[in-house]
Write a structure and sequence with these properties.
alpha/beta, Sulfite Reductase Hemoprotein, domain 1, five-stranded mixed sheet, two-stranded antiparallel ribbon, 23% helix, binds iron/sulfur cluster
């Protein structure tokens, strides 16, 4: 017996909305602020949007739109102020998150244990002989221990940016590839340019697209 294929009728689109070829999301740190933020994602997002225009990505995407710009055709960028990654840069075309490397200063430790209590990664920081000791294999570089240390015994010896690209959900999901840890803003824009070129050509970590 020939079965008729199931046909789902989409709702009528009353009025086409003008849509940006990019979907750029900034975490709460760039809007109302967040105590966890290590970088300001808002200022970087503005530079990224300008760079995407200059690289011609918007024009490229819009030139391939047939009826309307579908969400999965938009270039998705997410910026997070810290490794908690609330807006999930790991599943976007391009993503960044702030990070910081904690280190010990000469200021005496009072063994209050606030650093150990705040750390969500068991063993990443312990206090031995009135001195914090870090295991950098366990640390996720969130900067929380530095934030709560009342004596300045812990300081962030470097604040930087994790840069990721190629993440996606849908039919062929994959987590974004980490391009660099502890990068600076200049690197973010260099990496963005390289990734946009790959995105347009459909080279890894992106997929070739049929339009
Ligand atoms: S990603 Fe970090 S800085 Fe941004 S809202 Fe979440 S916790 Fe705050
Ligand atoms: S930076 Fe974060 S993960 Fe690393 S030791 Fe401090 S609190 Fe723990
Ligand atoms: S928070 Fe600072 S003072 Fe308290 S135990 Fe940790 S390093 Fe020592």
């Amino acid at each position: 017996m020939n079965k008729k294929p199931l046909k789902i009728i989409p709702p009528l689109v009353i009025k086409e909305k003008k849509t940006s070829p990019y979907d750029i999301t900034v975490c709460r740190a760039g809007k109302s602020g967040c105590i966890h933020a290590l970088i300001n994602p808002k200022t970087i997002s503005e530079k990224i949007e300008k760079a995407l225009d200059e690289l011609g990505l918007g024009e490229h995407i819009m030139s391939r739109v047939q009826k309307r710009l579908l969400y999965h055709r938009r270039f998705k960028v997410t910026l997070a102020g810290c490794p908690n990654c609330c807006p999930q840069p790991q599943i976007k075309d391009f993503g960044i998150s702030g990070q910081a490397i904690p280190a010990v200063t000469e200021n005496p430790c009072t063994e209050c244990m606030k650093c150990v209590k705040i750390c969500k990664e068991e063993g990443a920081v312990v206090v031995e002989n009135a001195m914090p000791v870090f295991d950098y294999d366990l640390c996720v570089f969130c900067g929380d221990c530095e934030r709560v240390c009342p004596t300045g015994t812990i300081e962030n010896k470097k604040v930087g940016i994790r840069v990721m690209a190629g993440g996606r959900l849908g039919r062929h999901p994959q987590l974004a590839k980490v391009l660099k840890e502890m990068a600076d803003e200049d690197y973010v824009l260099v990496a963005l340019k390289e990734m946009v070129e790959k995105y347009i050509q459909g080279l890894p970590p992106f997929r070739k697209r049929k339009y």
